[in-house]
Specification:
homotetramer; 336 residues; Rossmann fold; Dihydrodipicolinate Reductase, domain 2; 2 domains; seven-stranded mixed β-sheet; six-stranded parallel β-sheet; 15 strands; 39% helix; globular
Chain lengths: 336, 336, 336, 336
Amino acid sequence: MINIGIIGAGRIGKVHLESISYRVKDATVKAVADPFMNDETRAFVEGFGVKEIYDDYHKILEDPAIDAVLVCSSTDTHSSISVEAINAGKHVFCEKPVDHSIEKINAVKKALEGKNLKFQVGFNRRFDHNFAAVRAAVENGSIGETHIVKITSRDPEPPNPAYIKVSGGIFLDMTIHDFDMVRFLSGSEVEEIYVNSAVLVDPAIGEQGDVDTAIITMKLANGALAVIDNSRKAAYGYDQRAEVFGSKGMVATANDTLSTAVLSNADGITGEKPLYFFLERYMESFATEMRDFVDAVVNDKPVKVGIEAGLQSVLIGLAARKSVEEHRAVKLSELL
Amino acid sequence: MINIGIIGAGRIGKVHLESISYRVKDATVKAVADPFMNDETRAFVEGFGVKEIYDDYHKILEDPAIDAVLVCSSTDTHSSISVEAINAGKHVFCEKPVDHSIEKINAVKKALEGKNLKFQVGFNRRFDHNFAAVRAAVENGSIGETHIVKITSRDPEPPNPAYIKVSGGIFLDMTIHDFDMVRFLSGSEVEEIYVNSAVLVDPAIGEQGDVDTAIITMKLANGALAVIDNSRKAAYGYDQRAEVFGSKGMVATANDTLSTAVLSNADGITGEKPLYFFLERYMESFATEMRDFVDAVVNDKPVKVGIEAGLQSVLIGLAARKSVEEHRAVKLSELL
Amino acid sequence: MINIGIIGAGRIGKVHLESISYRVKDATVKAVADPFMNDETRAFVEGFGVKEIYDDYHKILEDPAIDAVLVCSSTDTHSSISVEAINAGKHVFCEKPVDHSIEKINAVKKALEGKNLKFQVGFNRRFDHNFAAVRAAVENGSIGETHIVKITSRDPEPPNPAYIKVSGGIFLDMTIHDFDMVRFLSGSEVEEIYVNSAVLVDPAIGEQGDVDTAIITMKLANGALAVIDNSRKAAYGYDQRAEVFGSKGMVATANDTLSTAVLSNADGITGEKPLYFFLERYMESFATEMRDFVDAVVNDKPVKVGIEAGLQSVLIGLAARKSVEEHRAVKLSELL
Amino acid sequence: MINIGIIGAGRIGKVHLESISYRVKDATVKAVADPFMNDETRAFVEGFGVKEIYDDYHKILEDPAIDAVLVCSSTDTHSSISVEAINAGKHVFCEKPVDHSIEKINAVKKALEGKNLKFQVGFNRRFDHNFAAVRAAVENGSIGETHIVKITSRDPEPPNPAYIKVSGGIFLDMTIHDFDMVRFLSGSEVEEIYVNSAVLVDPAIGEQGDVDTAIITMKLANGALAVIDNSRKAAYGYDQRAEVFGSKGMVATANDTLSTAVLSNADGITGEKPLYFFLERYMESFATEMRDFVDAVVNDKPVKVGIEAGLQSVLIGLAARKSVEEHRAVKLSELL
């Protein structure tokens, strides 16, 4: 049984608190820290029997009884808190992205060197039932050698344009999950990227210097090709599909729905829309990733999504941005 | 916040313990009783922070701090414990079937008379996402007037033939859920039943005087027709589908699977089999029914599956048995 | 190359004329006869290069150059014309039902005795791509031993109530196809039938002494059970599905649609309705049955749907009617 | 009623001969010419009642009774024969591609100027039931403004590598259909293209200087983005899908199969593979395009796929080739 401290009690911090409390054996949340702790959040946290609630996360880092911390604070603090936590001897689960700067991610990487500490990045979709099934089919040879990886990833609603600047734009905020998914499904690194993009959903997004619709193609180190299509707004909800095509066949997923009910009437044959909100769609995956992290810590196993995944996904995101700016294919090696 | 006592710590009792502990607000399990309480079960129960663990369920009935009890004991004790609990002033959630005897179910009904106590029967499938969606479509008029209710219900494996005698046979043990589903989906009572059945899965089931394959047709009070097809063994897993056809259209469900992944190769286009085990398939529905029961108790709302559902389902089951024995259509009124 | 004469130039006679002209090698339509031949029909027939057009079908029977005739006249003339054609030495393709009377069908059977003539009944659905695929799966052992045969057969629109009397009612007019399908898919005879039926679509149908909604269960000679559900009116179109369940699995079909296009929008995920009209839905099967008949004649092969299929389907239909009238299970042997 | 002459009696010429003979009213094939006419082909052609069979296509052009010609000869002769036919006053249906050279296509365009003659290019997929349904949904506003057009187009088997040189490579031979489909579905011109490609199926294709796997992205004049993914070999058969995503939703197609039968057994839930061969998959579309061409000629309507479609598709193909060679995005305007 290990003790966990959660740093950052926003939406995702609360999700992890609930998962660990109810759905993860071998771990207890001992403390939660958030600089903006308010009464509502405090009551929520106490509801799970957590007694140590702080404004200052250093209290967590200083507690020798805490084995691992979850870094769920704002993105710009992920890397520095991670380094502090590592130096305090804590295992770290860090939400994505680790940072927008390769340098800062490398600092985390360096901090980890020579220490027997786990560091996991919050790419929860790897733990999703559908994507895990696709990966399993690729891994067990069902489709032979991988030729094409295709990901469709469309949000139900665009973010507030004001958020764009903070978020680093579509590639570091939204597509970063898809970049990680390409690496996960293919088991290969991305070598080159070309982005074909546009502002079609909301001109205000364009005014922030970002795009809202994109088709992104990549060359992978294993020779395969990949393609992602993104939109910030799908009228029918959250569209999250993957397809991997290879020498022996193809594996593909459909969206999850609330039920399988289909209505047949004079208007047609109508099924339900995809689950709309990412917390509905991916709730199970958050619990699974947490179980996996705790398992890695408790049983000293390698984490499934380590610092390299954190680094590569941001690197691809930055290369995507450069491809848009320079209107050409960009090799990842150019950014190193 | 109400306190609950669980009577019977077998498989289903444990499921409810976990649901209430983790997934139901407003309720706590205060005590668990089981005459065959062993170390393993005791440890399991304690793991949820329950401190009062008994062999004798009367300790639960005598505890004035307990508001409601779950009757999860063996079927032959359901009705008598329910009556005792009611007389002790407890709200009751009783697993299905309430009893194999109409007389004993009527005894429970009588005990409830004049008391402001909730009594819910454990027809969890009413709370399943798929069946609830079908019911919603019927209720909101999407299919017009109901003409035909069709249920496919096939188990992945037959029970041990020795269990058949105790269980009351296929109609009281397995089809009883489907009988309740016909009532639920149609919103109508069953008036007449005819059973076409056979022993095709396992001759040992026939030797116990039971059947393992059946097509069951019914006339409903609202004029609609219903049909259930049952098998004790579907090679592809647990097959649980419903279809309701009416004047304006049809609503139908498919089976749930672990993922939506589909493999296309030289052999065909292959998706996953249905979830195999009833606890996997219906896990969510157990939590939902428990939330609903607690909500009914806490907020003094009517329960959604009351004693009448318990009575009618058994009545239909007994009529089904009679139809097989006498090889004719049987009216439910004949059994009253 | 054989010469064919078509007797009856109504809707189905025209379909066969077109199939043979365009889609069947080894056969030519040499003559067409219809007592109600009009200018429009004459022009249609001439359009296919047919030069011999008669009011009186005896001209066809008398023509020694004609090898085979298609009996597409009104139902009450099927059996007598068939007998005449057989006695004239012609191979016969006869539309369904051969007759409403078992006696008259037996007369055809008797006429065939000792003659080396082909006699095929127009159960075109056996030649449909979907139902043929189900039968193939049953036949090649993919589902093991057959336990349950399920057929859903619902028309898009009820017939004119005036037609009911002539047609012999739902069982001899509409369900007869499904009865034949049960025999085809199971490869077994029907032994007993029970009908649960109602008038839910149109009271005028009830006034004609017929029903419009039915659930029909059967016991088959091979021990399997079968069930058909019928409605005279499905708001979403022509619903034609089959499912066969056995010891090793299940094979099932969905409806055909005009295209696979699916629209996803704020209202849901909507595909097309089934093909609405039986001529759209089954057009291919009419050509295939004709090719098969011609092949049987030219190459002296057994026909796939002979007089026994014609007889048994009517026998089941009459037993169904008796079951409704007497409100009990009826054995087919009672009618012999 | 018009008379048609077919020039080139290879596979596709024969398909058109059969379509016109059996499935197109208002047209007759009067003559067929092929420089390699052999006995087998001659017998096939005669089987449809065609009496004028030539080695030299000029006999067709010289026949004043022939209204229209189908140019089904080898690709390198398409444009010159088309020009001759136009100059002889014939309406022309020309197989795709019109030519590999923009100059030669422009010569055809020029020949057409000022003449009231129809010229249709053989992009049959526009007349396919699935793609036509997608286009209809786009056209009637069901998906709002188009944002993304996605096409998956994978062949069941790669061509003989020797064919690659003659064919002009994957983009002019195979993807040309998809380029036309992008224009058809979007109703917009392609402005810029970027190709990400590889040789993954057969190294012999690479040795011919071609690729066998590609992800192709485009910018369209209406602001939308498009993407095509191609493979020369899909182990599960001919994969032909389209998806169009817009401001109000998405419309997408699945592959056609021989039947809807699905087998459920211990191995999974398995449906049929897509129709394997392009002639099976697109047979209906060949008849429909022919009916449309004849309708345009007979009723003096505009053709649905004119010379501009022939020109633009080749232009995109040449730009795709340039993109691969120069490893950059190529504007179509660069090639003019």
